[in-house]
Write a structure and sequence with these properties.
Elements: H1 9-34, H2 39-52, E1 68-69, E2 84-88, E3 97-101, E4 104-108, H3 116-125, E5 133-135, H4 141-144, H5 147-153, E6 159-161, H6 168-181, E7 185-187, E8 192-196, E9 199-204, E10 223-228, E11 231-235, H7 241-250, E12 257-259, H8 270-277, E13 281-284, H9 294-302, E14 306-309, H10 310-313, E15 316-320, E16 326-330
Parallel strand pairs: 1-16, 4-5, 5-6, 6-7, 11-12, 12-13, 13-14
Antiparallel strand pairs: 2-3, 2-15, 3-4, 8-9, 9-10, 10-11, 15-16
Length: 332
């Protein structure tokens, strides 16, 4: 079991600033004693500065210098087994997120039926020909639609599913496929923990029970959290006002990265959710035709949260090294 941050976000920022100040002070002393710097050292510094330059986050927030950097960061985005990576595939207004660490791969939601080929191609292009797990947060077509077809092409060891059936026209293909192939699956009615390299994924049951009459699939979403040393991620499916209200009454933890629930949809308690979780980075899986509301973007900007959006950035990749520092790259 790894350690998690138990200090406040403000204290963490102050600590980082103090560390930077001390580093600069010691560097000045050392270089003064050496009587100057070599051309090689100066060149290295220039290259490092250039490597930090890259794409700005989408409108609605500014990347914190100590937390998020764009393409070309010192963090590698390859197969380094000490790095945790999430790829938010651009499937329109829908969720399909690849979680990777080392040789472990988990797919969180599966996009639409119309996007399964895109996702399968992306996985295979990364050398991924099997998945350790697939997590479906809820049975809406933009989360479960492509699941059966993806699993047919890329075998899945185990499925983590909501503890309800939902509409057959949305969930039927996947449930029939699991039954036909006699595949291992878990209906999440209590917390499940999944190892992802050195990281741990926690899958919590829905905060609100599914009601067939109300068809409240969104509020019946599973809640997914990821922890890796100091890194803390929250991916709450499509929860809306009622489930958010329960979350606010129970949660006492902050998170570095928040996938905005329901594609950035505005709720009466969206502001309270942001204040409760205090994210540094927000990812919004919206589309060009259905963009996040401007009022939500203003709330994110007000809190100086770096914002990345599918509608603006396309596929978004976030890589963390366990220190609370993240590399963010995108295809646009």
């Amino acid at each position: 079991m790894f350690s998690r941050k138990n200090t406040g976000r403000a204290a963490l920022r102050k600590g980082r600033l103090l560390a930077v100040f001390l580093f600069i002070l010691m560097s000045m002393i050392l270089f003064t004693g050496c009587g100057g710097t070599s051309d090689h050292s100066a060149g290295s510094a220039d290259n490092s500065a250039d490597s930090k330059a890259g794409r700005e986050p989408a409108a609605g927030g500014n990347a914190a210098a100590d937390t998020a950097s764009d393409s070309g960061s010192d963090l590698q985005s390859g197969q380094d087994e000490s790095l945790l990576q999430a790829v938010f595939f651009d499937v329109g207004k829908g969720d399909c997120i690849l979680l990777t660490m080392g040789q472990d791969h988990v797919l969180l939601d599966a996009g639409y039926e119309e996007t399964w080929q895109l996702v399968t191609k992306e996985l295979l292009s990364r050398g991924i020909d099997s998945l350790d797990a697939m997590i479906i947060t809820h049975y809406d077509k933009d989360h479960v639609g492509g699941a059966a077809e993806i699993a047919e092409k890329i075998p899945v060891d185990i499925f983590y599913l909501p503890d309800y059936e939902g509409d057959a026209d949305k969930s039927g293909d996947l449930l029939k496929y699991i039954e036909k192939k006699d595949l291992k699956s878990v209906r999440v009615d209590e917390q499940q923990k999944i190892a992802l390299g050195e990281a741990e994924i926690e899958v919590d049951p829905a905060l609100i029970q599914y009601d067939q009459q109300e068809k409240n699939d969104n509020d019946a979403s599973l809640i997914v959290k990821i922890f890796y040393k100091e890194d803390e991620w929250l991916l709450p499916g499509d929860i809306e006002k009622d489930a958010i209200e329960i979350w606010l009454g129970e949660n006492t933890q902050t998170f570095d990265i928040l996938k905005m629930p329901h594609h950035g949809g505005r709720e009466k308690n969206t502001k309270e959710l942001l204040d409760n979780t205090e994210p540094e980075i927000a990812v919004i899986t919206d589309s060009v035709l259905e963009e996040v509301p401007e009022k939500v973007l203003k709330q994110l900007e007000k809190r100086d949260i770096a914002v990345y959006r599918s509608s603006v950035n396309g596929t978004i990749t976030i890589t963390g090294d366990g220190t609370g520092t993240y590399d963010v790259t995108s295809e646009k």
